[in-house]
Amino acid sequence: MNYNLLEEKWLPVLWKNGNFRHESVIEVLNHAGEIRCINLANPLDYFAVHRFLLTLLYWKAGLAGGVEKTRELLLRGKNIPVAVLTGIKEATPCFDLFNEESPFLQDSDVKRKDPKSAGSLFAECATGTNIAHFHHGDDENMRLCLNCAVLGMLRVVPWSQAGGAGLTPSVHNAPPIMVVATGDNLAITLGLNLVPLEVRTGEAKWSGHFQSTDPTKPIPYLEALTWNPRCIYLPSPQPGACWYCGQTAVDTVGKIIYNKNEKTKLLKKGNKSIPFSWHDPSAFYPDKEYTTVRSYSEADAKDNKDLTLLLEKDAGKKKQERPKSLVVERNMDHQGWLLVVPCTNPANNKTFDHRQLELNNLSPETIRALIPAQEEQSRRQGLDGWKQPKQFYSQGIKQLVLSAEKLLTQTDWGAIANAAFKAMHEAPAAFDVFSGLYWGLRDKEINGLPSRNAAWLVLKLMAAVPTQARLIHAKANFSPLQSLPKRQINERGRTSIYPVSLPGGPRLEAALRDVLDNNMHKRYPEPVDWIGLCSGLDQLLD
Ligand SMILES: [Zn+2]
Predict the structure, then answer these.
(1) For residue 248, how far is its CA from the centre of ligand 1 (angstroms)?
(2) pLDDT tens string for the chain (542 positions)?
(3) Residues measured by CB to lie within 5 Å of ligand 1, the ion
C-alpha cells in the first residue's frame, strides 16, 4: 500500500476562481498564489495543515536564500521559489504513510500491542475514558479513511495534549491559543506566518522514534516543528467507512498503535515540571518565559471571556504587559487574522471546546469588543434546565391535597392508580373521581387551585403509594422534585457542570414515580411533602 502525503489528493482547498477541490500538497505549493485558502472547517485541522505546509517551507527555505528571503518573495505575491519546491519534491519518500522502514510520523519499531482507537488522533472523538464529546465513538470499530488519518497525524505535532498513563503534550505543552495571519491568497498567508526564528535550525524528524537532541537547551526550530510526543503506527488499510468524514467503501485504518513517547517527557526541577525552551511563533507568551497563553475554563470559553488572557493585565500594582506572539509582532499593521482557541481542561485530557475567530486586527479594542461587557449575574436558577419552584403553598393547593386525602375512598384511589401514565381523557373512571374533587373545590370558589394538569399528576402519584405514605404530615419534607437528577454526577460524587433538562410528559411522571418508589424502599421512608409537590408541579408544568 502506497500513500504519499505530498502526492495524494487529500488537501481541500478553495481556488481563487471559486473552485473547491482536494489537491495534493505539491499541487497546492505549486499554485499557492492561485489558491484562496485551505478549506477545512475544523480550526484544529486548519491550523495543523497550515503548520505542516509552513514546516515544509522552513525546512527547505535555505535553498532559496533563507526564511526571510522566502518570506519576502511570498509577501510580494510571488509563487514559492522553485528551489524550495524542488527540495520538497526531492524529499517525497519521507512522506509515505505506509513505508516499511520509515513511515511518516510513525515509529516502525514500536511495540505493536494494545492498539487504541483511531479516534485517539482527534480531540473531539470520544475514546477510552474520555466520553463527553460531540462525536461519540466506539474504540473497537472506529475507522478513519486515509485522508482523515493524515489530518489526525498532522494534529499530533501542534495539538497533542497530556493524557493519562504518561501521554505527554507537545513541545509547547498543553494546546495554546494560536494565531494565523491570513492574506488574499495562500502564498501571502504562508509568507505572513513564515517568520524568521532566532534559534538554531536543527533537523526535521519525519519518521521513527522522536527524540530531542538536547531537551535542556533551546530547541532548534525544525526539531520543535516536527516534535512528536507519540509513538504511532498505522495498520494496513482495509476497506470500510470513515467515522470522521463519512466516506464509505474506501481504504480505512482501524485501531492504531498510539503510545506515549518517554523521550518527550517534560524536564523536572525538583517536583516541578519545567517547560522546554521553545517559543512557538504562533502562540502567545506573557513574558520571556516559555509558558504559553491558553484557555482552560469552559465557563470562560463559552462567551469569549477567555480572550481577556490576551490583554494587558492590570491587577493592582502588578501590571503585566500584553502577551506577545512572534507572528503578530512581525505583521504589526496587517489586517486579517484567525485566532484558534482550543479550550483544554487539565483535569480532562482532551480538548473540550475549540473555536476560531476571524478578526480584522488584534488591537486591544478589537479583543475587548468580543468580551462580554458586564459580568453576567450568576443565575443558579434556570441553570439546571428548570426553575426552582417557590416555596409558596396557596390555599387552593393545600385544600386539594387535604381533601383528596380525606375524601377519596380506596375504590377512588384504585381508579386513579389505574390511570398511571394516562391523560385525563384516556381514563374515564379516574377522571370522574378527579373532576368530582376538583370541580367541587372550584365551585366553593377557593383561591389558588393548582392547574388541572398539576392536580391530575399529583393525584396519580398519591395513588401509587401505600395508604400510609399518602397521609399528610405536618413536617413532611421529602420532596420528589428536589430528588430528580438535574446535573450529571461524576464518579467522585461531585456535581458536574452539565445540566440535565427537567423531563416532561410521561418521562416526568416516570421519573417522579421512580423517586417515590425509591423512598418507599428505604428502611424508614420519609414522609412525602405532597402539598409542596403539587405546588412545585403547578409552577413547573404550565
Ligand atoms: Zn475520512
Answers:
(1) 9
(2) 899 999 999 999 999 999 999 999 999 999 999 999 999 999 999 999 999 999 999 999 999 999 999 999 999 988 899 999 999 999 999 999 999 999 999 999 988 889 999 989 988 887 877 765 566 678 899 999 999 999 999 999 999 988 877 889 999 998 999 999 999 999 999 999 999 999 999 999 999 999 999 999 999 999 999 999 999 999 999 999 999 999 999 999 999 999 999 999 988 888 888 999 999 999 999 987 899 999 988 888 888 999 999 998 876 667 788 999 999 999 999 999 999 999 887 666 555 578 999 999 999 999 999 998 765 554 444 445 566 788 888 999 999 999 999 999 999 999 999 999 999 999 999 999 999 999 999 888 888 999 999 999 999 999 999 998 998 888 888 989 888 876 655 555 555 556 667 788 888 999 999 999 999 999 999 999 999 999 999 988 87
(3) 145, 148, 242, 244-245
Residue 378, domain member (yes or no): no
Q: Is residue 374 part of a domain?
A: no
Centre of ligand 1 to C-alpha 150, Å, is: 9
Distance (angstroms) between ligand 1 centre and the Cα of 132 equals 22
In a domain, 70, yes or no: yes
The alpha carbon of 194 and the centre of ligand 1 are apart by a number of angstroms equal to 29
Is residue 302 one of the residues assigned to a domain?
Answer: no
Residues 166, 25 within the same domain: yes
Q: Cell 414515580 appears where?
A: 513
Instruction: Report CA(257)–ligand 1 centroid distance (Å).
Output: 19
The Cα 180–Cα 342 span in angstroms is: 14
User: Alpha-carbon distance 136 to 466, whole Å?
Assistant: 43
Judged by phi (left if over 0) then psi (alpha if -120 to 50, else beta), residue 283 lies in beta
Do residues 50 and 192 share a domain? yes
* C-alpha 429 – ligand 1 centre gap (Å): 59
Residues 6 or more apart whose Cβ sits within 8 Å of residue 303: 372, 376
What residues make up the domain containing 22? 11-267
What pLDDT sits at residue 280?
Answer: 97
Ligand 1 center to residue 218 CA distance, Å?
37
- CA 330/CA 362 separation, integer angstroms: 13
Rounded distance from Cα 265 to ligand 1 centre (Å): 31
How many residues would you count in the chain? 542
Neighbour order of strands in the sheet with 250-253: 144-145, 250-253, 238-240
391 Cα: distance to centroid of ligand 1 (angstroms):
54
Rounded Cα distance, 37 and 14, in Å: 6
CA of 34 relative to ligand 1 center, distance in Å:
26
Domain stop point among 267, 298, 329: 267
Q: Extract the C-alpha cell encoding 500.
A: 440535565
Final residue of a domain: which of 244, 267, 290? 267
Structural domain count of the chain: 2
Whole-number Å distance, alpha carbon 8 to ligand 1 midpoint, is 14
- Over the stretch 286-297, which tens digit does the pLDDT of each residue have? 987 899 999 988
11 CA to middle of ligand 1, Å?
12
